[in-house]
Every structure is written in structure tokens, then in C-alpha cells.
Specification:
Blueprint: E1 2-9, E2 15-21, E3 27-28, E4 30-32, E5 40-42, H1 60-92, H2 95-100, H3 102-111, H4 116-144, H5 146-166, H6 170-198, H7 201-232, H8 236-255, E6 266-267, E7 270-271, H9 278-286, E8 295-297, E9 316-320, H10 328-331, H11 342-358, H12 360-386, H13 396-401, H14 404-417, H15 419-431, E10 435-436, H16 446-465, H17 470-497, H18 502-548, H19 551-564, H20 566-573
Antiparallel strand pairs: 1-2, 3-10, 4-5, 6-7, 8-9
Length: 582
């Protein structure tokens, strides 16, 4: 069932009847340029306002600058997390003792007084802190704006990077991991929210792919650099270089990054929104000169499929130029506070668990995120442990270089999960009379869903049998493709389905995945010891098949589940801080 309410602007400034569907996330994505026209235009979802200060109305250049700063931060926090994992792996495989040198090893072991179980505990603390950080910081970002949280966490990450470079005892190492984990959670949860602040539905696949590329750069290339740095300058310089890069990012946040949160405002009791019909556009632009309001549109977006028609002065036609632009001081304001009570704020502490267990789409995304993190940890750990032994005999630098194959695979995976995903939904929506269903994104999950387990099987079997190094590299490359394709597809599916509670949903997803990762870290060694590497990867590959192919029931029944959860979704959306949703 669908209810026609008013009209919806397209990229060409034309209008199309807006339809309210029973299933959250279902929307018109394409419509005719005009009555009787055979040409079709992308319909902007969510509907932009006529306020030129709305981030959805920003120019492509302005959006790109802000997204680049946030994505750079993502790369750095992922690099810091994986660099600690890299040190953890080197210790586990005794490569610290062999390759970095006796002076560094003596400093790391004797001055820090750290043992393997204690280092395991450090990693577990970091994972738990990442989960807790989402619970603490995301509600604050929804309440007070994205900018203050980015500034706060960038400063904390900078301090903890320096802290870890100079620390010389176990207590400081533990404390640094707690604060670093809490702050780094922003890279996992707040950047996807920023994407929804800036981009329309038909652009989010590409934006999430760029986010995943930056994540993959931090995850896969940081150990490569860390291996060379540890060899040439010693392990503390892994953190000194991280601190230098974070300091640069912090300066960009302070002086360049504007608030991307936007709430619908009212003037004389009326919402500032885009014109709702072609007639309204005509009335505004052709009325009495003294009352005329010029309507313009931002620069053409980077995913526009056609060249939209332009209005006066070569610009498009839905922004109300009578609304003043914010001054530079206002753009860089520290807080952008939404109305809301303390009780409403505290609901974000327990609501993520409620969302996780009651909405199938959120549970599906949690499984995809958790499995990707777990299998990555398993591959990274076993690489250092087994490929340092005969017949491979890789050293510290060689172990770092083993991350290049999954990084190369991740580039192709991001293309599959980004541009290909955006193209596929427009193609499928066109075949569905212009109506977009979020499950349309999941059709292309089948290929990476199959190739990922194939890569895990190939990697595990080749390492256990001592096959030439090219075979485990090929397996990890296939897994890199799968991981980097499935994550942006799943994230965009969640964003499109339940965008008004995205922050709450991401808190639940993030917390759950790190709890699972913590369990796996402690269970992996006994698991391999009891079953052997060959059988362990047989089980892991089968589990990966089961997790990845959950996209099939989501494709078949996802819409039905969205309809059944609609009342609960709307109830949760009503207590969110942002008036437009996310």
C-alpha cells in the first residue's frame, strides 16, 4: 500500500508525487522529467530543504573537502588499531625477539614488564573500549553535533599516540589503550553518519566505498609501513608517525571542518523545504518582483546521471536565496545542539541492544561486520605465526608486505560495493517503475559472498600444506575483495532502510562486533591447537559461507520484515535528536 502526499523534486527541478510506502526505506528513486517524457531523472532522497546551509545542498567541492577530512581520520584510527594488532602479532610469533633487535626487545619486555597473556589483555581492552566508545560518543554527536566530537576524539587520539610512543610500563600501556579505543570508535561509527549528512541515497554507495577504501588503507597498508618503521627506527616510531599525521588531521578539523548536522527549521510556522510542485516553483519565480524569492540548486552532484536544468545565473532552482548564508564563525561553531531531555539522551545507552535484537536488518549488518573483523583477525594472526616459519621464513618487513594482496583485493571490492552498487540500484529501480527497495543493494552481495569463503579456504589450506607463498596471498586477496565489498553494501543497506535511527543502530553493531572479536582473540590459539590449521580453516570457511549468504533471506523477506518493524522503527525514530533524522 502507498499513500500519495505531495510532490518530490528531481535533479532537474521537476516534481513527482511523493508516495509514503508501508516499508521504511522504500522510495521513488527515478521518475520522468515531465509529463509524457520518456527521459528519467534521479529523485533526491532524502528530500533537500530550500536552505542553502543544508549540507545536502552544499557544492560537490565543499562536500568532498569535509568527507576527505573525516575519511582521513578514519584511515588514521584504523591504522592505530591495526598497528597495535601488528605489535601483538609480532610478539605472538617471536618476531620482536628475532628481527627488531635485542635493545628494542629488551626495552619492550623488561621496561614494560609485559608477557603474552598481558598483551592479549591489552588487545581485548582496546576492543572493549572501541565498543564502549560508540555508546558514549555517538549519542553526544547526535545531541551536540559532529564537529565537537571529531575535535575531542582527534585530540585524544593524538595524546594517546604520543602516550604509546613514550610509555614504559604496563599500567600506562593499559590506560592508553582504553582512551585510544574510546576515541577511535568515532572512525567506525560517526563517519558513516557524516556520509548520510552529506549525500543522497543514490550517492551513498560510492561514499561508503570511499570510506571502506580509507579503512582498508589503514588496515592493510599500516602494517606494511609499520614493518619498515620498526626495522629502521624502532617500534616507538610507529606511534610517533601516527601522532604527526593525527596532528595534521586535527588542524584540518579545527580550521576547515564545518558542522554537517542539520535540523529542519521553521519560519512563521512553516518548514523550510524544497518546493513541492512545479506550480509552486513557478509561483515563486514569476510573482511580484518585490516578493520574489530566487530558487537555486547546488553544483551538480558527482553521481548525477544527467545535466540538470539550470535556473537564473546558471544555477539550479530549489534553494531559497533569501535565506542568509552562515558566517565563517557560525560554520565553525563548536556546538550545534538539538532539543532533547536527559531521559531521551539516556535511552541511547540501552536502545542499541533493543534495535539489535528486534530489527533483522540491524542484526544482519552486525553479523557481516563481526564476521569480517573476526576473519581478518584470524588471517592476520596466522600470517605472522605460520609464515615466519619454514618453508616461508618471512621477517618483520615480509609479514607487513603480506597485507598488500588483501589491500589490492579491497580496491576492487570497494568498486564493487560502491559505484557498481549505486548503478545496480538505479537499474533495478528503473525496472521496478522507479521504486527503490533497499534489498536491491544486496543482489550484488552474492559474488563477494562466495569469493570470500573461497579465499579463506585457499589461504588456510595452502598455509597448512606449505604451498608456495603466492597461494596464501591469492587467498587473502580474494578475502580482501569480499570484505571490502560486503561491508559498504551492508552499511548502505542499513542506512537506506533505517536512516532515522542509524546512529543507534551503529552503536549496537559496533559494540557487538568488538565483543565477538575479543572472544575470538582468546579462543583462536586453543582452537587451532585442538583442531589444527587445516580443520580450523575448514570450519571458518563454512561459517563464512553461512554468514555471507544471509543476504539471500534478506533479499527474499527483508521488505516483509521492514513492514513488520515499521511501528517500532517509528517509535524509536521519534526519540532521536535530529529532526530530519540522519
Amino acid at each position: 500500500m502507498a499513500e500519495i502526499t505531495d510532490a518530490e523534486p528531481t535533479e532537474a527541478g521537476q516534481s513527482l508525487k511523493e508516495i509514503t510506502f508501508d516499508a521504511p526505506g522504500t522510495a521513488y528513486l527515478e521518475g520522468p522529467v515531465g509529463a509524457g517524457s520518456s527521459h528519467r531523472r534521479v529523485i533526491l532522497q532524502p528530500k533537500p530543504t530550500s536552505d542553502p546551509n543544508d549540507p545536502l545542498n552544499w557544492s560537490f567541492r565543499r562536500k568532498s573537502v569535509h568527507f576527505a577530512i573525516a575519511s582521513f581520520f578514519t584511515m588514521l584510527v584504523f591504522a592505530l588499531w591495526v598497528n597495535f594488532l601488528f605489535l601483538h602479532i609480532l610478539y605472538c610469533s617471536n618476531l620482536f625477539r628475532i628481527d627488531i633487535g635485542p635493545v628494542v626487545w629488551q626495552e619492550f619486555e623488561e621496561l614494560l614488564h609485559i608477557t603474552y597473556p598481558q598483551l592479549n589483555n591489552q588487545y581485548a581492552v582496546n576492543c572493549v573500549s572501541l565498543g564502549l566508545g560508540s555508546i558514549i560518543l555517538v549519542p553526544l554527536a547526535l545531541k551536540f553535533g559532529r564537529r565537537p566530537i571529531y575535535l575531542l576524539t582527534a585530540m585524544v587520539v593524538l595524546i594517546t599516540a604520543i602516550w604509546q610512543a613514550v610509555l614504559r610500563d604496563l599500567a600506562n600501556m593499559m590506560a592508553a589503550q582504553v582512551f585510544n579505543g574510546i576515541a577511535c570508535a568515532v572512525g567506525w561509527t560517526l563517519v558513516p553518519i557524516t556520509i548520510t549528512d552529506l549525500f543522497f541515497v543514490h550517492q551513498r554507495g560510492r561514499a561508503n566505498a570511499v570510506y571502506q577504501i580509507m579503512s582498508s588503507t589503514g588496515v592493510f597498508l599500516a602494517p606494511v609501513a609499520a614493518g619498515y618503521i620498526a626495522d629502521a627506527q624502532g617500534w616507538p616510531w610507529i606511534y610517533w608517525w601516527s601522532a604527526i599525521l593525527v596532528a595534521v588531521n586535527l588542524v584540518l578539523f579545527i580550521f576547515v571542518f564545518e558542522e554537517t548536522k542539520f535540523s529542519i527549521h521553521t519560519i512563521a510556522g512553516s518548514e523550510i523545504r524544497a518546493p513541492t510542485s512545479a506550480q509552486e516553483i513557478g509561483n515563486i519565480s514569476t510573482g511580484d518582483v518585490s516578493k520574489r524569492t530566487e530558487l537555486v540548486d547546488p553544483e551538480s552532484q558527482f553521481t548525477a546521471t544527467t545535466n540538470p536544468s539550470t535556473g537564473p545565473h546558471g544555477i539550479q532552482n530549489w534553494i531559497d536565496c533569501s535565506i542568509p548564508l552562515k558566517s565563517p564563525r557560525q560554520r565553525l561553531a563548536l556546538f550545534t545542539t538539538s532539543a532533547g531531555t536527559l531521559s531521551q539522551f539516556l535511552q541511547h545507552i540501552y536502545m542499541p541492544v533493543q534495535v539489535l535484537v528486534s530489527i533483522p536488518a540491524v542484526a544482519y549488518v552486525m553479523i557481516q561486520y563481526s564476521s569480517a573483523l573476526v576473519w581478518f583477525t584470524v588471517v592476520a594472526t596466522t600470517q605472522a605465526e605460520y609464515l615466519a616459519l619454514p618453508p616461508y621464513n618471512f621477517g618483520t618487513t615480509g609479514i607487513g608486505l603480506l597485507n598488500l594482496p588483501p589491500f589490492i583485493g579491497s580496491i576492487f571490492g570497494c568498486i564493487w560495493g560502491g559505484p557498481v552498487s549505486d548503478w545496480s540500484i538505479k537499474f533495478l529501480a528503473r525496472r521496478n517503475e522507479g521504486i527503490y527497495e533497499p534489498e536491491m543493494r544486496l543482489y550484488i552481495s552474492l559474488l563477494p559472498g562466495i569469493l570470500g569463503p573461497v579465499g579463506l579456504f585457499l589461504y588456510g589450506y595452502s598455509v597448512s600444506e606449505g604451498l608456495p607463498w603466492i597461494f596464501p596471498c591469492l587467498g587473502s586477496g580474494l578475502y580482501g575483495f569480499s570484505m571490502s565489498a560486503l561491508i559498504p553494501i551492508a552499511l548502505t543497506y542499513l542506512t537506506d532502510s533505517y536512516n532515522k535511527i542509524l546512529g543507534t543502530a551503529l552503536i549496537g553493531v559496533s559494540f557487538a562486533q568488538y565483543m565477538v572479536a575479543t572472544i575470538i582473540i582468546f579462543a583462536l590459539d586453543p582452537w587451532i591447537s585442538s583442531m589444527g590449521l587445516y580443520n580450523t580453516f575448514t570450519v571458518i570457511g563454512c561459517l563464512a559461507v553461512g554468514c555471507n549468504l544471509l543476504c539471500i533471506p534478506m533479499i527474499l523477506y527483508g521488505k516483509k520484515w521492514r513492514i513488520s518493524c515499521k511501528a517500532q522503527y517509528e517509535k524509536m525514530a521519534a526519540v532521536q535528536f535530529d529532526e530530519r533524522g540522519i
